[in-house]
Amino acid sequence: MTEVKFIDDERKLSKFIAEALDSKHIAYDSEFIPEDKYRPELCLMQFAIDSGVYVVDALTIEKLEPVKDLIERSEAPWIVHSAEEDLAILHDVFGAIPTRIFDTQIAHAFLSTTLQIGYARLIHKLLGVSVSKKEKLFDWRKRPLPEAMLNYAASDVEHLIPSYELLSKNLEDRERREWAEEECQRLLRKVIDRGKDHGPLYERVRGWNSVPQRELSVLNALCVWREAKARSSNIPPSRVMADATLIALAKSCPRTEGDLASLRGVGRSAKRHGAEVVEQIVKGLEERGSFKPETREDRDIANSGSARGSLIQALVKDVADRMSVASSLLLPSALNRLVSSPGWEEVMESCEWKGWRRGVILEQVVDLLSGRIRVGLDKKGRIIATKI
Predict the structure, then answer these.
(1) Does the pLDDT value for residue 73 go beyond 70?
(2) In angstroms, how far is the first alpha carbon of the chain from the final one?
(3) Which tens digit of pLDDT belongs to each residue from 107-148?
């Protein structure tokens, strides 16, 4: 185990940041607690740079602004592994994320049929080193931090730089380095866009599709209220009100606190917030006329492309098999839904049409849907795609 330098005061942090800004490599990981809060609580930030391995105590150090300076000024790509959550927390805490990353999980996906390889498995495969991942449930808020846990946290970045060097060479040998870099930039855009509106909140509620169509406006109003309450109190939405309670309220639509108090099975949280809950229900009922959710008929039309989708999947599998990569790397679920829908021509207007997938798979999908490619089986029963 490489010596780990623990940074628990602002003087040590400033010194580390100066060293990191001069480093040609920056590997990063973090430890956080996702439970009990609306926003995950950042506890540790682990770095590996040219001069060694460092663990920054994000709970003890009051002024972490120098970390933002590192994020914004570092020229080296940040080497990470499966880092969407780690990057999202950086963005939430510092309002910034690195301009370039190299995600080793993404890089490996371009060299293997395994789309999402775990860190320990990747390190053992590349370097022959065993890394323990048995302490995932440790409470990282505990202080003083046991030395064993400090070393455990540091091991998450200790091997990232040599892994980066091996993966980079393999990608260059197979002429896929630019594809991996583009996909890493796609992840950064995804993190930045996380806070934007991505559809109605009610679709995140388990069992929402059991609510009658005309009551979805009520469910939506309750969901918007719950989300705002959770955000302002920094607690998980489920701690404000359970999904099952939202569903029960949307179906019953009590219009007064008296009606609410007489209901069974809606939980104490609904009655505790009685006035606010009734206000949202009345608001939702008033919005029935203007609220236009996607209808179940719309969904049936969208799903009518299932036959089209089967053909596309056959084509994608053929290309993926020849490239020795996972089919879902070539055509992620959101893109698959787009090309499988009646309005599949929109794919040619999407940002994906300008990226690496265009020449690798999307042009072939368009040719298939336009009748210029057919999909069939060879004599051995393998899927093949041929130009017409």
Answers:
(1) yes
(2) 59
(3) 999 999 999 999 999 999 999 999 987 777 799 999 999 999
Q: Are residues 110 and 252 in the same domain?
A: no
Instruction: For residue 6, count other CB atoms closer than 10 A to its CB.
Output: 17
Handedness of CA 277, 278, 281, 283 (dihedral sign): negative
- Long-range contacts at 142-149 (CB < 8 A, ≥ 24 apart): 143/59, 143/60, 145/6, 145/44, 145/57
Q: Are 135 and 221 in contact (CB under 8 A)?
A: no
User: Please, what's the largest Cα pairwise distance for the chain?
Assistant: 72
Measured CA to CA, the distance from residue 76 to residue 56 in angstroms comes to 19
Pair (60, 205) in one structural domain:
no
Burial of 275 (0-12, 13-18, 19+ CB in 10 A): exposed
Residue type, 261: A
Hey, is 236 helix, strand or coil? coil
User: How far is residue 131 CA from its own chain's centroid?
Assistant: 24
Strand 383-387 to 373-377 pairing: antiparallel
Would you give the distance in Å from CA 166 to the centre of its chain? 25
Q: Are residues 91 and 190 in the same domain?
A: yes
Token match 């060879």: residue? 378
Where residue 70 sits, what CATH number does that domain have? 3.30.420.10
Task: Quote the DSSP letter at residue 50.
Answer: T
- Alpha carbon 229 to chain centroid, angstroms: 23
Do residue 34 and residue 133 come from a single domain?
A: yes
pLDDT tens-place string over residues 205-226: 999 999 998 899 999 999 999 9
* Residue corresponding to tokens 């020449």: 359
Each residue's pLDDT tens digit, 239-290: 999 999 999 999 999 999 999 988 887 778 888 999 999 999 999 999 988 8
32 phi and psi, to 5 degrees?
Answer: -150, 165
